[in-house]
Predict the structure.
Amino acid sequence: MSEFLAMGGYAWYVWPAYAITLLALVMSVLLPIRRHKDLKAQLTVLVRQRDTTDAS
Amino acid sequence: MNQTKANPWRRRFHELGSPPSVYALAGRLAPWLAGICLLLFAGGLTGGLFLAPTDYQQGESYRIIYIHVPAAWLSMFVYAVMAISSAIHLIWRMKLADIVARASAPIGAVYTFLALVTGSLWGKPMWGTWWVWDARLTSELILLFLYLGYMALVSAFDDRRTASRAGAILAVVGVINLPIIHFSVEWWNTLHQGPTVTKFDQPSIAVSMLVPLLMMALAFQFHYGWALLARIRSEILESERRTAWVSDLVGHRS
């Protein structure tokens, strides 16, 4: 296991490359999914407000 | 109108361009793309990090190839998608094409950034330098600036239609950079190695290394699809926020 982590002496190049890639790929799906959720919630509030003002 | 009702294929085609059906389709498709993407990553990473042999020249450092090459391929593929949708938007004024281009830009920028950073982390131990101003690296850096320029341009106008058109023109003109990136290693003397996978007549990579590399490339491809659908949904909601179907959507559900 420690031999695997050492990457033949290149650990300081291989693992940061993989870490940055993982982070960037995860963020580039998580952020849009969260933005979509927020946007939907925001629009729900707007539509409810509009409906109640229309009704009164 | 009657014609579109009579011909189901024609109706299909019309639905492809209609925001509510694209929005619904994107929502249904996304989990599948996500699942396939994660499976491919699991397979590609197992193959690339555990099963593939050590390179006889580069030792273990070569394993950066499994993220560097897919990121670099996708950085160009996404730009091609962006340029083609921009052209479609310019010619036929198709709204969906503009949405695809806008949603692709930040994802492509991420792949380009990753190709540059992982390349740098690979270059340091192999070439002894983080960066050289050679043709391949410089043209890839220009690609990053094209993505960032597109995003800046599209957000610089208050009028959405003007913004889209300006961005689309930049995207189409910038496509000239793609062949420059691809052939840079042949046209100029460069530190960057030539193609190993794309010369099929004489492949210079072992099968046990090639299979995980192709799996990782497919995984990135599906990641692009997944991220694209997620962004498209927000873009559609944003641009259709005043329509009745969006009110129905958020009013009835959630």
Notes: Chain B has ten helices and no strands. The longest helix of chain B spans residues 19-51.
